[in-house]
Specification:
globular; 145 residues; Rossmann fold; alpha/beta
Length: 145
């Protein structure tokens, strides 16, 4: 069962509106009710973060203006975001992205799934973690869901 009592607000930063819709469907599949804010690029993301820090950030790698790699780098250099989990959510398959985002301080890496059910299971794992009591930085071998 997901630990959603602590998670009320998330941001999904992704320029692909269809992917955001699929993400929302996956949340609905597992009956997770949270406020979802959408940033279509890195600039919009940082505007949103300055207004309110979410309980979890789901971050795509390939976005216009400021890409996900630049975003995670900037986020982890700013102590205001030390307790904000950053979950990479991307269609990118390059192993170098996995290693780079791990090294830069992302908490988990989700490859966009082939099905809504598969994505829902991965999201359920993210929501089952008690992020408020501890930040999770798994070993690289367990970084990709």
């Amino acid at each position: 069962m997901a630990n959603t009592s602590m998670i009320e607000d998330i941001i999904i930063a992704d320029d692909d509106k269809e992917e955001v819709f699929i993400f929302t469907l996956a949340l609905n599949d597992i009956s997770i009710k949270v406020k979802i804010r959408h940033a279509q690029d890195g600039k919009t993301l940082f505007d949103m973060l300055r207004q309110q820090i979410p309980d979890i950030l789901f971050l795509d790698i390939m976005m216009p203006c400021t890409d996900g790699i630049s975003c995670i780098r900037e986020i982890r250099q700013d102590s205001r975001y030390d307790e904000m989990p950053v979950i990479m959510l991307t269609a990118a398959r390059q192993g170098s992205y996995i290693e780079t985002t791990y090294r830069l301080g992302a908490n988990l890496f989700i490859r966009k799934a082939d099905s809504i059910a598969d994505l829902a299971e991965k999201i359920k794992k993210v929501f089952s973690i008690d992020w408020k009591s501890q930040m999770v930085y798994p070993p690289l071998a367990n970084f990709v869901l």
